[in-house]
Amino acid sequence: MSATKTLISVAEAAEILGRSESTIYAALNATPPRLNYQDARRRLLKREGLEARFSRSTRPRVDKPQVKHHEPESEPLTFDEKWGIVAETANKILDCSQWGAPPYSGEQWSVLNICIGEGVRELQAETEEL
Which sign, positive or negative, has the C-alpha torsion 113, 118, 120, 121? Predict the structure, then answer.
């Protein structure tokens, strides 16, 4: 392949750009085309400025969302740690000395459900902060 050639094949363009032939064909067949044939009958591309034309058409755009790299997260809470937070919150709300041994009435179960729900909300708030 000569550096003085003005028209090159898709295979030569792929070699010059360090891409596969299918990538070059995709750029030629895109709507709108990112690359154009100089000689459509013989399917030849213009060599001059090929790199600039290809990089200009495939560069990342500012207006497109970029992938955000997240900081490594700390280890997730274990099952026991989660229920420890729920129990701590429930113990702040509930006076355990007023409760006898089970079986509990429906009203007592309702109060326990509310306390556990508050504990779960507290847990969610803490895990969102992490």
Answer: positive
pTM metric for this prediction: 0.43
Domain holding 115, by residue range, is: 79-129
Distance between CA atoms of residues 88 and 130, nearest Å:
18
From residue 31, alpha-carbon distances to 26, 28, 44, 112, 128 in Å are 10, 9, 19, 62, 43
Please report whether residue 89 resides in a domain.
yes
For residues 54 and 84, state if they share a domain.
no
**Do 14 and 54 reside in the same domain of the chain?**
yes
Residue 63 has which token pair? 């207006």
Mean pLDDT by 10 residues, the chain (130 residues): 75 91 89 87 90 77 66 78 86 82 86 88 81
